[in-house]
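Forwarding these from the shared drive since the link keeps breaking.
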Amino acid sequence: MRNIQYSVFFVMTIFFIPGVLWYEQTGTLALYFSDAVPKGQLVYVISKLIGMIVLMAIAWQAIITLLGKLKLISNYWIGTRHQVMGVFILLFACIHMLTFVSAVSMRQESFAWPLFLPNFKDYYHTHLSFGLFALVAFITIAYAGYQSKMTKPKWARMVHRFYWIAIVLVYFHALAIGSEVQSGLGFFVYALLGVVTLVLFCVYTVKQFRAKEMVYS
């Protein structure tokens, strides 16, 4: 029963917290159906909400994974649920990018294909590229995770461990160009997620280092 309650809480936070932050920045959607806003703005704010949901899901995935490795939670959260969340993150990340490209294309009235390529010409486009690199990294990591479950090659497990690179890229992508960070609540939520994840990662790293020292001593 408790695991079910935790699951409900887990799912609600993934959608509820981004929804609150999004509404604080966006307000009622009625405005976006009028001629008072630029073309593609409705699609853009939807893309923004999806991106915030992705970030929250990534944070929970990282936190739960680390808690599991530290033996602080039961195996209920490990295994299939980890894989399901991985698929959810990858799917919503792709939707986030596609809706963003669609919004830009609608605004400029031509297909914004350059957004599928890295661009470092300024601050904004550089951090957009961070998101692009993160998406490519997540696709690669998801494939490696799938292979590690199916055929268990050594390269797949090694590649899957580099998911931290994708998390860091997403975090900087969101902090740099996410307008929700400009609000006090948004900054607090993002800072809290980052600090909790970093602390757990440091504790896990120290624990692994000490375990190796004991083996070689």
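-- next protein --
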Amino acid sequence: MKKKKREEERIGKVRMLTFGFLAVCVLTMSGLAGCTTTTVVDNGGEEIVEGKPTAMAISIPRVATYADNNATSAEVQFKTADIYVYGASLEKHVSKTLADFTLDGDVYKMKDSIQVLSGNGKKIYVGLNLSAAAKAVIQNSGAYGVYQEAVSAALRDTITSAGGGFAMFSVNTTANTTFNIESGVTSPRGENKNVFPVTVARLASKVTSLKADNIGTAPNNTASGVTFHPEIANGLKFCLGNVNTKTYPLQKISGSVVEDPNYSSSPGLFNEFVNDYGATPWNATASEYVDVNASSTAITARNTKYAVENTSQSPYLQGAMTYASVRALFYPDYVVTGYNATTNVIDTSGNTVVQNDLYVFTTAGGEYLYFTSATDTVAWATDSDNPEAAGRKYLGNYKNGYCFYLIYLAPETAAQKAIYGDYATARNFCYTLNIKKFNALGYPNPNEPNPNNPLGTQTHLTVDVTIQNWSLITTEHELGPL
């Protein structure tokens, strides 16, 4: 338990429920006669003969035992187990299925053994529910790496497959990956030797979103001359943008900092990311934007989006970091129904048309003008005699009465930021976004406004984030532009 606690504190230290990791015990079994080398390594009083044939098996605590309150049944399924043993190179890889294990109490025990070689400082990695592509990457890696890229546009699907189980892999610490395999052990359990606990974590990140109970009432739902309607169908939805398509099976840690394959902040890497939303986010399909849930919704019943780990060096560019795109429906209090270029008079009326296209300007005085006619919009925008000509700013065409907000996913504590950076989507973290208030009109589309610019303070966005293991991060947000 002390070891497990240390691992959880390193991976995610925020108000955590710490049962997101699955413990895996790797056991070496009875030794076989014969040695390929007679090298003897001192092991604190124990002699380890290098290269002696022996046998190994694994036992895995039943996944249900470790199903914390943040995980669905699909997120804790055990379908397959892959065991990798490295010396100077890969010495053994075996793939097992659930049928290869028997259930003894709360522990799945392998029915047969694996022949391996004894030795000092062996690397043992365990992966659960791995895809064929991930297995190939690991088998081609060196003993001290497993940092080869698992590259695929469909990577997110392969590590979050409900049918095949969520992919998990060994947590990268020396104590969790490096073991001395003794020879001559005939009863690992009885002798309490060659029993190696291995902790694994999901490769994916999980994102859910909630809305405050009073978000549909004033003043929380009014800003910029509009009223937002998060309480009605399609009124408030979210999805993910800038989702990574590359990951390392074993988390790469340089010093104490986690680096993914796209760790460089170069804009040239922007094409490595994909978005949930398509070309017409105002007419998004159900698989693109999903409903933001009511605040009382249990985490296992919420609409969920999954991401691939994404870290970056500073400066944190808008185009390099994963974000939640929130889509909100709004009705202007007044719309522009006509413009007289001779008198510079704007005709307005109360808005009786909902979910129409709106052409939005702001004036020098900070007033928002919502045009329903493209003709009137052009006339007002191009009129040189317009008193507002010097200070007017066109915000865009808001299709179907929707605006969009960006919430960049980020660690919460200083300890987490020291490991992952100020903005990051970390594996095995669950981000819960609590949306509390609309402070201003959002953007006309879900794309980053300035991909090459560093992220600044989100002044119109108040966020409460909680992380659990699934390390839960909950953030509170008041919605407005970046």
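The chain is about 10% helix and 40% strand. The first strand starts at residue 22 and ends at 29.

- D.
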